[in-house]
Sequence to fold (417 residues):
Amino acid sequence: MGKTTDIRRIEAIILCLAFCQLALCQLFVLPAFGADNREKVKSVKLVVSVEEKPEVGKAIGTVKVSVSDDKIEILEPARYIDTDDEVWVRGEVPVVRMELAVKENTKYRFTSSTKVTSSGGRSEVKAKKVLDGGDVLRVELRFPKVTGPLEEPEDYYWDGRRARWAEVEDADKYEVRLYRGNSQVTTVTANSTSYYFYPYMNRGGEYTFRVRALNSTDGAKGGWTDKSEEFYLSSGDVYQGASPEQGSGNGNNAGPGTQKQVGWNQDTSGWTYRQANGSLAQNTWLYVDNNWFYLGSGGYMKTGWLYVDNNWFYLNPISDGTRGAMKTGWVLVDNCWYYLNPVSDGTRGAMKTGWVLTDSHWYYLDPVSGGPLGSRKTGYQNIGGKRYYLDAHTGILWTERNVPDGRWADKDGVIQR
Fold:
């Protein structure tokens, strides 16, 4: 009886081992049978149709996207995302999202290397993501920044020899034309809502002006106002100094001729600034009329590139009403773009180098003096042992999309090998 029980136990153990061996074999064999042998979707072409172009103040409309490949369908229609407003706001970047699906998911699949292109509506691919094991592809498209018309300035008038006007919403600059009688004297650009025209008034007569609003971000231009009321200047009161076109300085702040009065004064060597105590500002920054200027040796106003305080600065060299003023943000100098710190953090106006994040985009500014130093880079760049692609026109770092040679740039912009 005992032997029979032992035999049955042994048989049970052998049977159990056999089942375990079978299970292990299936475990290692299953992946071979489960390999995804579906055909990869190599590319997707999207055609975009915008019913109404996004413009400032217009309601958030709809956008239609179609796909040309008959083996792909739109699973989730395109819709605008990341906007909480009922109307478009200037500078906003419209982004639409949609989901694509393969009709025969047993035969085809999306992969991270699936190339997506779009046409229509000035759209471009912003991002893509593979979902559901390759059955679905989520795509985001972006469009140019929202623009729109600017209003005409109101309440424009003469304040002595200075032209003034009311501020226009969304405007960051103003274009102003000065007339003597029916003849146009000059056209200038102002950063504020006034302009001191006296340095242009070298002949007696009746002066008027017109002004329109500008937005440098999107290039929008408002309509011109009518001519202002007339300002009469007698021949005995005309400006006696050099005109701004002859290398003088700042039309917003110019002093009358060569008189050594408090404020701006000009001689044959340039512009100086006499302080209230009678001394000239020298080798120092000066903040006046909402702009920073640098007065160098001898008290003369500097223009162009300036190296001071261990940083490079750029002082407007153009006689546009702000000559000598410290520039901030993006500036184009000698066909190269530079980014000058716009933040008042103790280094406002200082030239940036290396990686810079602005307007939700990454840029790379040459850190090497022979680059030239601080110039915005474009195209393929090897940085820190990694390869990146910076847009050939804008310098924006491409992320989560295929670069021109077909390789994929990840969320950090690093091109995968």
